[in-house]
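Re: [ENG-882] Designed sequences occasionally contain unexpected residues at chain ends

Forwarding the minimal case from QA. Structure tokens:
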């Protein structure tokens, strides 16, 4: 016989899976973030939505969830898997590079926001100083579960946000112990307990890091030899669960262990395979967490307290956005647009705010009604996070477009002009910047321009299809021009115009194939690089070697194909000398040379 508890769990699982199957495709169709959809589903099927009608309509029990506690374990698992996936995208070297951001900006952001919010609560509310500042710190926390999936960890916005979020995650354990120590009913052992937890946590983290360094490559090597994806998945889940349980056993947050597990696997050569296998579980588990957030929204309480709730949400968002943006801007860490976008993205409370609120309530620092009010504020803040992210992105784009023009007009002479800032243009600019060569890039996509500026690239908006747009770039003083656009007709037209107007200007153009390269040479290009040539040759080389063909004949064949390509381009472009098509080869150290 199936027990009532098992039936309830199966019913909850069906509701969650059904919600994921409906929400994700529906919101993707309308290009909306599924985050909002999951929260709305939680509101709909939760105890304040359809769940409140189960007394009158018993059949609704099959499509609703009675309380958020019923799926709390799944929600916590979602956060653990999210932090694990974030760790997979990082490395210990990158964390070391971010140490100033983490312990500098991250510490300053949490401290200042907590102090300002705590002081405001102390002055405006009937709270004791420990309760006010405890609430201030709780509200100063930002959502790792929502911010990082929106911003990532590699962009300028994601890098700044991740640094502050990482410090908040590390500071969560001391915050909880300090609040417990401030309890009126606490004993004198809290400080000693905190120190014990910290040194035990440090030992566990060190043990996990050392053990992972030696054991993980062997574990995943065995899974790779078996060529069974299920073994990779089982090994990955085993590692993350063991790490999370180990840190939780000594009083640290399980998300610290999950992040460490991801970092350890990221140092192995199997991290791409692990990331691909665990990605679907991360998305589903995060959806469960968001459903639990939606279930925490009580419509009756919101209707009764809506003026106070709106004032509280707006106040928290404004304080955190202004403080975060100011710290990033005045410390020189981020550009003005990036600072504004990160400020709004980080301005909502966090899922960990709910943990701190529960701790403060248990420590008798705040009343139950106060905890419930700020839980509603937190849930509303989490719900509007995607909207705040979009507003921040739009504001950042406008700021960058408004402030960037004057800066980019003062570029030095002898620069390289890059037309088009897609994948190819980005790579060219990155290498020019690495070798300290001045450049300016242009693109007709306003979002591409704004994103590139936030990442520190010298890019401006210009539609090169319009007559006279290139004349404003000072091409007469340029050292070279690189054409990377996708439109072959436009490339040919621009090459002819540029060659007629600037006879001595080096023009390097991206070409689709040999025919296009020949046409570009005929139009006056100095160099035309067929984008399909080297990728095709390297792919063919890999196939032949894997099939067992000896290296010597393979290299000879590749050389013959490359020579034929040079001859074809020379003939079609009516060149007197063969074009320069260099083979990219790898040195024993792993670097690439021409």
């Amino acid at each position: 016989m199936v027990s009532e508890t098992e039936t309830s769990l199966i019913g909850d699982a069906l509701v969650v899976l059904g919600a994921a199957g409906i929400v994700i495709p529906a919101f993707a169709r309308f290009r909306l973030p599924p985050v909002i959809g999951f929260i709305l589903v939680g509101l709909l099927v939760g105890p304040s939505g359809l769940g409140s009608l189960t007394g009158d309509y018993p059949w609704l029990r099959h499509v609703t969830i009675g309380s958020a506690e019923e799926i709390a374990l799944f929600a916590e698992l979602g956060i653990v898997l999210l932090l694990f996936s974030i760790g997979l995208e990082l490395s210990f070297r990158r964390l070391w590079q971010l140490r100033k951001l983490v312990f500098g900006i991250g510490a300053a952001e949490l401290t200042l926001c907590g102090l300002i919010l705590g002081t405001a609560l102390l002055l405006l509310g009937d709270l004791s100083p420990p309760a006010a500042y405890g609430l201030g710190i709780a509200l100063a926390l930002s959502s790792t579960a929502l911010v990082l999936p929106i911003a990532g960890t590699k962009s300028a916005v994601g890098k700044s946000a991740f640094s502050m979020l990482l410090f908040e995650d590390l500071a969560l354990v001391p915050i909880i112990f300090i609040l417990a120590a401030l309890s009126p009913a606490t004993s004198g052992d809290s400080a000693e307990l905190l120190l014990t937890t910290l040194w035990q946590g440090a030992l566990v983290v060190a043990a996990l890091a050392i053990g992972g360094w030696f054991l993980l490559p062997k574990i995943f090597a065995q899974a790779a030899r078996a060529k069974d994806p299920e073994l990779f998945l089982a090994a990955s889940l085993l590692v993350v669960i063991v790490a999370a349980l180990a840190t939780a056993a000594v009083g640290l947050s399980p998300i610290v262990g999950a992040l460490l597990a991801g970092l350890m696997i990221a140092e192995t050569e199997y991290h791409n395979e692990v990331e691909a296998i665990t990605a679907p579980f991360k998305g589903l588990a995060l959806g469960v967490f968001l459903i639990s957030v939606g279930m925490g929204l009580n419509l009756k309480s919101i209707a009764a307290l809506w003026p106070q709730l709106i004032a509280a949400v707006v106040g928290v968002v404004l304080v955190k956005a202004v403080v975060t943006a100011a710290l990033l801007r005045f410390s020189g860490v981020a550009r003005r647009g990036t600072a504004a976008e990160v400020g709004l993205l980080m301005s909502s409370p966090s899922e960990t705010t709910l943990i701190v609120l529960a701790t403060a309530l248990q420590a008798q620092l705040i009343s139950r009604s106060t905890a419930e009010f700020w839980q509603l504020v937190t849930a509303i803040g989490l719900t509007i996070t995607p909207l705040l992210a979009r507003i921040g992105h739009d504001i950042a784009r406008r700021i960058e477009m408004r402030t960037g023009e004057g800066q980019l007009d003062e570029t030095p002479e002898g620069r390289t002009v890059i037309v088009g800032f897609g994948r190819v243009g980005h790579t060219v600019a990155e290498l020019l910047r690495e070798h300290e060569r001045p450049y300016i890039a242009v693109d007709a996509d306003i979002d591409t321009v704004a994103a590139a500026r936030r990442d520190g690239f010298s890019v401006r908006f210009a539609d090169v299809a319009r007559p006279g747009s290139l004349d404003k770039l000072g091409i007469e003083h340029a050292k070279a021009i690189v054409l990377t656009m996708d439109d072959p007709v436009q490339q040919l037209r621009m090459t002819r115009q540029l060659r007629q107007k600037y006879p001595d200007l080096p023009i390097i153009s991206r070409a689709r194939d040999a025919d296009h390269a020949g046409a570009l040479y005929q139009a006056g290009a100095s160099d035309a690089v067929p984008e399909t040539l080297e990728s095709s040759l390297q792919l063919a080389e890999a196939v032949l070697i894997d099939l067992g063909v000896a290296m010597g004949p393979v290299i000879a064949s590749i050389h013959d194909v490359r020579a034929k390509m040079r001859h074809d381009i020379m003939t079609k472009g009516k060149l007197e000398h063969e074009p320069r098509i260099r083979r990219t080869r790898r040195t024993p150290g792993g670097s690439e040379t021409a």
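QA comment: On inspection the terminal residues look reasonable. The chain has 23 helices and eight strands. Proposing we downgrade this to a documentation issue.
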